[in-house]
Design goal:
Distance between the termini: 8 Å
Structural class: alpha+beta
Shape: globular
Largest sheet: 6 strands, antiparallel
Order of helices and strands: EEEHEEHHEH
Helix content: 25-40%
């Protein structure tokens, strides 16, 4: 999925990964339909990033932008399903997703679990799972 114009945000750790714990990983593929919807996505992503930084249960996250392909993706690690669900229902994420829905192509979500002993997931693994 990556091309030469792919930009990944640095991994942001918000809580330590405990070697003996199991975590939920979420990868998403977000394809805007147009340049206009790309700008909406960019503007909203800053607010969602701030939300993530203050969300209980998120362990870490990163974003990927491939503007020439009109493709964006997220990769995040969560303490559990309940923490992820609470984040998804909270503002500003909930409102942004509702506002962007008509301007986005087919969004894909993939979830899996990892052991804390394995460390954080890789973008290569996430993108393979999203294909």
């Amino acid at each position: 999925m990556c091309d030469s114009v792919a930009v990944k945000s640095p991994w942001k750790t918000t809580a330590p990964i405990e070697p003996g714990a199991t975590y939920l990983v979420l990868a998403s593929s977000i394809p805007p339909k147009s340049v206009a919807s790309t700008w909406k996505l960019f503007r909203g992503s800053r607010a969602v990033r701030r939300q993530l930084l203050g969300t209980d249960g998120v362990v870490g996250f990163s974003m990927l932008a491939e503007p020439l392909r009109k493709h964006y993706a997220t990769l995040s690690v969560w303490r559990d399903e309940a923490a992820l669900d609470a984040f998804a229902r909270a503002h500003p994420h909930d409102r942004l997703m509702a506002d962007l829905a008509p301007a986005m192509g087919q969004t894909m979500f993939v979830r899996w679990t990892i052991s804390g002993a394995d460390g954080r997931p890789s973008w290569a693994d996430a993108l393979t799972r999203l294909e």
